[in-house]
Amino acid sequence: MVEEENIEAPIEGLEEEDEPQGGIFEQFWAPIGWFKMLAMEMHWSFVFGVVVVYGISQGLGGALARVGTDYYMKDVQQVQPSEAQIYTGITWIPWIVKPLWGILTDVLPIFGYRRRPYFILAGVLGMVSMLLISLHGKLHIVFALMALTAGSAGVAIADVTVDACVAQNSISHPSLAADIQSLCALSSSIGNLVGFFISGIFVHLIGPKGVFGLLTIPAALVFSVGILLAEFHIPNFCYRQVKQMFLDAGRSMWTTLKLPDVWRPCLYMYLSLAVSLNVHEGLFYWYTDSKGGPHFSQETVGYISSVGSLGALLGALLYQNVLKNHPFRDLLFWTQLLYGLSGMMDLILVLRLNLKFAIPDYFFVVIDEGVSGMINRLKWMPLLVLSSKLCPSGIEGTFFALLMSIDNIGLLSSSWGGGFLLHMLKVTRTTFDNLWLAILIRNILRVSPLCLLFLIPRGDPNSTILPIERVSSTGEKEYLENESIELVSLVNNVDPR
């Protein structure tokens, strides 16, 4: 409570100055005062970096890239749904190696800076790859995949780097840690909603290649973060220690992963994602088909996706205000069950049963997308909390990136498994006779992780899952206190005002 009073003090001061302007002005100036307070406390360049990376690059840019890639694979490359599913999975590979980016930003400064060069690298990768796709008439699929993967790598590197900056500022400004996380979540949610809302409009107006051309703007802004970010220069860094620091980090992570309290939940998280086969491309091709499908326009596809983002935001609010203190097993049981049942709405839609009850396709899909987005977020939130509790002291950031990589491997397995299923059932660009069967198999597999809930600890989010004594008793070095590898190894790097 003391921290909250300290945080609100600057905002209250600003509101008092604007009192003569009336209540509506107070509501308008409060968020501006909040941003101003954060910029004053932690330097404006950090706030700018968070908004650019989370809000514009990942949020808005990620939404544009998803819809643009769907239409690029379908209309420009003209590949089958199963192939598009596989190719999309390939572009996720840079997110699987997030721990590598994390360790690099922690232990390998470039020209005396730990963060700025990686933002610059991320921006260059994004700009070059997006320009290549947008300006070339029709890239060979191999080169198109290379460009898309390079663009994804740029976003992933920027994500890991800003994560390090967020953790660094959260430690140096503990009273503002909650505000920093609110800034990250707010930026991402608003960017995602706006991105999906306008994605279909831009695909319709300038085509998918034109959308990739627009994505050079977020990449250029990430580049500008690397130029503008205030960061101390580290002269005469000893690069001889980098190899040992890499080895120490790897040894620490492997020691932690061998603990039953850690590998069992990790196994559950991977399997629960991998077996929930992703058949998104099959549904997308069917959505836009003029014969057997509802033939949604580009604008409609974007609007539908924005509803899913809104549902995810509502799910996060529901978890925060109602469900955050429930035991992990109980909450995951119900969310996983609802996740499987919600998939039946796709089955109803593909079988056209909604029309028998006089429910229009668009209205039904909007409900389906909103409900699915909310349930998926409710399923994901406790896994994020659980992951944070599995991270040992001293290597929290790098180990959390490792856990997120395990989850990304699960998503990759799900995407490739879904592509294989679509191929086996002969779901093509124009043939959707067996799409209902693919959805039914997916829905059955979605509830199968219920049999693996014994891998999840019985505790609730307020309990300790990974005691320090348990980790230290492994006989390895006492790395939790002595290791030099940390996500925020240079706390004193926080730039002064």
TrEMBL record:
Family annotation (SUPFAM superfamilies) = MFS general substrate transporter
This protein's source sits in the domain of life called: Eukaryota
Write down the membrane topology: Multi-pass membrane protein
Q: What is its main location?
A: membrane
Subcellular localization, per the record?
Answer: Membrane
Q: Does the keyword Zinc apply?
A: no
Alphabetical keyword list: Membrane, Transmembrane, Transmembrane helix, Transport
Q: Does the keyword Ubl conjugation apply?
A: no
Which cellular component appears as one GO term in the record? membrane
Which residue ranges traverse the bilayer? 44-65, 118-135, 141-162, 183-206, 212-234, 267-288, 300-319, 331-351, 399-423, 435-456
* InterPro entries for the chain: BT1, FBT, MFS_trans_sf
Similarity-based family:
Belongs to the major facilitator superfamily. Folate-biopterin transporter (TC 2.A.71) family.
**Can you say what this protein is called?**
Folate-biopterin transporter 2
